[in-house]
Amino acid sequence: MIVWTLYDIENDSTRSKVSKICRKMGLIRVQYSVFLGTLNRSEKDSLELQIADLIDEERDKVYIFPMSRDELRDSVLLGQAFDKKLITNEVQALFL
Q1: What is the pTM of this model?
Q2: Class of the 2-95 domain?
Q3: What is the DSSP letter of 65?
């Protein structure tokens, strides 16, 4: 599945750890606190659990949005949007 992960995390160290987890899971950074990529159900669940263990649930915000291929294909990228070449071939092909 295609997954967007977005976060607003106050603590610098925690924010860096979450970023590393996203990259380790194969997600690509498209903005400072926004990642996009493809994960299977178990990888998505693992991402969720790892992040949940790190964040302060009273202050931090994390969103993990699955997205269908059709929804991604219908997405509109304006201005200085992310470089489609940086994302996985599977996700990139959906924009063509």
Answers
A1: 0.81
A2: alpha beta
A3: E
- 68: which residues sit within 8 A by CB, 6+ positions away? 2
Distance CA 83, CA 61 (A): 25
List of E strands, 1-96: 2-8, 28-31, 34-38, 61-67
5 within 8 A of 57, measured Cβ to Cβ: no
**Domain extent listing, the chain:** 2-95
Tens of pLDDT along the chain (96 residues) come to 899 999 999 999 999 999 999 999 999 898 899 999 999 999 999 999 999 999 999 999 999 999 887 787 777 777 776 665 555 555 555 554
